[in-house]
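Batch job 17 of 40 flagged for manual review because the log was empty.
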Amino acid sequence: MLGAKQLLWKLTTQQKQFSGSCKTFAVAQLHLHRKSANGAVCPTLRRQYHLVSKPHVMSGVNPPSADMVPDVVMRSTKDHAKRLISWMNRRYGLTSLGYDNELVFFRLGEEDEAKIATAVAKSEEDGGVLPALEDVDAGFTTCFQHVDPTLVAKSALFTKLISDITQDETLSVLPHTLRIFPITHHIPAGKVADLIALLVPEAKVGVRLQAAPRKAEGQIIGPALQDELVLIPRWEECNSILSVIPWKDKWFLSMTTKPAFQPYFDMKTRVEAAAAPTNPDKPVSRAYFKIHEALLRREFKLDRSMSALDVGASPGGWSQRLAKEVGRVLAVDPGALDIPHTPWTDGMDVNALEQGSVVHAQAKVEKSQAALAACGPFDVCVCDMNVEITLALNFLENTKQFLNKGALVVLTVKLVANAKRFLPMVHKAKDAFRDFGMYDVHDIHLFANKNKEFTVIGTYDPEHAALVNQKPPADADAADFAA
């Protein structure tokens, strides 16, 4: 057995051969099984490499450089930071500059930068005439004394970006935490006089300040700012919105008239109305948003000709969402449902039920074969059970005989065991999906997923899966296999 010094030398040597903290950590993990005589991990080794018995958890910090200047800053939760970065890049072309806990810093994408460059070039050709905004709100330009072509072009882009993001249903789980801060200027931190010098006189009355992090508002609203601006604390009563993001030795900021943020206010109104206790369609659980987002990500269209199966349905969030668009949902769970439903009874005529009905088989899936046969075949099969992955996969295997070809299958993989088994659990689920006869299998970390949850999605068709999932033998000719 290697001693402490030999282990440290071995790790140090291998660390030089790898780049990046993740790979270094993997090398360190490789040697964790080497223990001292009393069975404990060598203390020197643990101290030197800060080893822990669980895998690395995102710290919530990947800060941008101190001299960066973002175009957009978003505030969410640190748990959603990486997911937000990925989605904003994929959907809106924004490029991440880094994140710091709840703040994520972005630059506009290449396409938007090209639009700005074109607007500036055209303005120069026209002798300095500002680009026309056409029907786009000019809120981000009317508050400032000096307006140049870049600011006009950004105003159009920011207005559209706010509108698009606030109508993005994929982000429907985030409205209570997501804030959008377009950035048009930056000044030295605390230089209120520099801020006031940027503004036209009428922009100084009826101002609502929004800052991130939220506690920064108390630091920014000092006597100097209150002497220069008439601040209004309520959104409903303000005329304009001042956004300020303190970062290092700078304040990133923008100011706009209220209508530019109207889509954001409309989104808040929609969300509050949907969550109101008096709303009969109020989601019965947070799980509702998982299947809603999964359907959007997969671009899978439901219709009333379809039947859906929800394994482990209680309290009914997934069944509630599916019932809005499919003809019938069979919810299988020994637990109770908190949504309108019809209890399953042997011999019942499920075809006589109304469109969008939920049939509840209050039993385990292996004891619900009669209900499965009567309500199937199914075009959608979902499972959000809080059980060990092997058990969840067994449930799905027992139901695949009742699936139509082309059926969408959605499974939440949850961490119910030691953290270091999590990623293998996701891979195990994907491999099992393929073995069950599914193709186009993907794992997605939904916004609606908790930190230690992943969603695995696949399409059921054993014949097609057998073709697309097979791999060529190591010695096979690639051209022969492709043929």
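Reviewer: the log was empty due to a logging misconfiguration, but the result itself is present. The two ends are 53 Å apart (CA to CA). Unflagging and moving on to job 18.
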